[in-house]
Design a protein that fits this description.
about 200 residues; 4 helices; five-stranded mixed β-sheet; three-stranded antiparallel β-sheet
């Protein structure tokens, strides 16, 4: 989402990624390896910016990523590559479903369900199909809705101004209060105040 800001903490080599690095449920962890997938929820999916933002995050060579949904993940190089593939897969599913006769959201939802099932099988996930469906039901619905919106609003995408903004915290800022601009559509409309490890959105 365009309103998310990524924060890189040099001391811990950690990137706080918002939704930019995807979604990961601890229930899907297998022998310490996480499963990560993109969120395309409405109304701001932009595949070009998503790819570029992943590359920008990885350019900092973080060791850990802290996801809004959910928690800390490692193995970032592998997950970044998987995220690139899955973003392309989401785009292909949406484009293939974009026909006049298609109930696009239903078709996309079923294809996403099949995609995740295949990926989780490769991941060696041991959860039952019922458990997997319960965990992913809301994400599949939201991703399908976002892809339909993306198909209907192509002119809103492809702008470099939607590339993720990464804020670097160095040792001089850790534990202190500082303010950084939060960019919305190219304008610093609000401020993020960082104080003692907490982040506040200020008017």
């Amino acid at each position: 989402a365009r309103h998310h800001v990524c924060i890189y903490d040099e001391r811990s080599q950690s990137m706080f990624t918002g939704d930019t690095f995807g979604v990961s449920y601890r229930e899907f962890d297998v022998n310490g390896m996480e499963f990560v997938f993109p969120t395309t929820s409405p109304v701001q999916f932009d595949p070009d910016a998503a790819h570029a933002s992943l590359d920008r995050i990885m350019s900092f060579t973080p060791q850990f990523a802290y996801l809004t949904h959910y928690s800390r993940i490692t193995h970032l190089e592998q997950h970044a590559n998987a995220m690139h593939r899955l973003i392309d897969a989401h785009v292909a599913i949406a484009q293939n479903a974009n026909t006049p006769q298609s109930d696009r959201q239903s078709v996309i939802s079923e294809e996403l369900k099949a995609l995740f099932k295949q990926c989780l099988s490769t991941h060696d996930c041991r959860l039952s199909e019922v458990e997997v469906n319960q965990l992913l039901r809301s994400d599949i619905k939201l991703n399908a809705q976002g892809l339909v919106y993306w198909l209907d609003h192509p002119t809103e995408h492809g702008s470099t101004k939607h590339l993720a903004r990464v804020v670097r915290l160095n040792d001089g800022q850790c534990g202190k209060c500082c303010q950084i601009p939060a960019w919305v559509d190219g304008k610093a409309t609000r401020w993020l105040q960082l104080q003692h490890g907490m982040v506040f959105l200020c008017a």
